[in-house]
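Need residues for this backbone.
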């Protein structure tokens, strides 16, 4: 139930963190991703990714690792000799590159990059579940927050864009959206919260750097504030 409704009914809303209960939605997330893999709906066990964007993204990271320029978004293997200028920016490339570097001592760079690319979106989804539990704390009580986290994982679009084998920016933007939502709630309850205001600006700027597709939710958040 809404925290406000609880107060009107004379009950004190439960503001305590979810604690170990967060393992329930996280466990559902893991089981859902395993189901996608074991049934072959997402053929990552065959070494495949979900769509061409994933291959393009990993190839960009490989090119950057092999001496490519950070500021050169041209991909030379498409439309030679001129190449193809990508509209993507580098923050996601940097995250994929960092993950591949961490796995390089065990798997080698290319295999590490592939594995991290396969797992990247589900990891972002798990982080966004944690972020959601925190984001809605000012407006929902403990039970409602748990239900919201479970309902979040039932959204077809969320599952589609955050599946295994999808190393693209959509799940990352979803994580940033949920984080910005939480900061917006805190600023609405305390407009003088400078820390939340600064963080909201950083998250909004990072979202726009990653993709102009985030302009809608960033604009809505700024309009509300």
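Answer:
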């Amino acid at each position: 139930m809404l925290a406000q409704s609880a107060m009107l009914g004379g009950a004190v809303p439960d503001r305590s963190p979810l604690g170990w209960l967060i393992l329930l939605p996280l466990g559902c997330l893991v089981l859902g991703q395993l189901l996608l893999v074991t049934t072959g709906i997402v053929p990552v066990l065959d070494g495949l990714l979900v769509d061409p964007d994933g291959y393009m993204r990993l190839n960009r990271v490989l090119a950057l690792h092999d001496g490519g320029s950070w500021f050169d978004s041209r991909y030379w293997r498409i439309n030679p000799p001129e190449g193809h200028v990508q509209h993507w920016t580098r923050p996601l490339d940097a995250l994929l590159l960092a993950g591949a570097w961490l796995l390089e001592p065990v798997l080698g760079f290319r295999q590490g990059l592939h594995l991290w690319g396969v797992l990247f979106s589900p990891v972002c989804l798990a982080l966004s579940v944690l972020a959601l539990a925190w984001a809605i704390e000012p407006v929902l009580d403990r039970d409602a927050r748990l239900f919201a986290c479970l309902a979040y994982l039932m959204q077809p679009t969320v599952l589609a864009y955050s599946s295994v084998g999808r190393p693209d920016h959509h799940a990352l933007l979803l994580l940033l959206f949920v984080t910005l939502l939480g900061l917006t709630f805190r600023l609405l309850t305390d407009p003088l919260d400078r820390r939340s205001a600064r963080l909201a600006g950083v998250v909004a700027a990072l979202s726009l750097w990653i993709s102009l597709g985030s302009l809608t939710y960033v604009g809505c958040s700024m309009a509300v504030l």
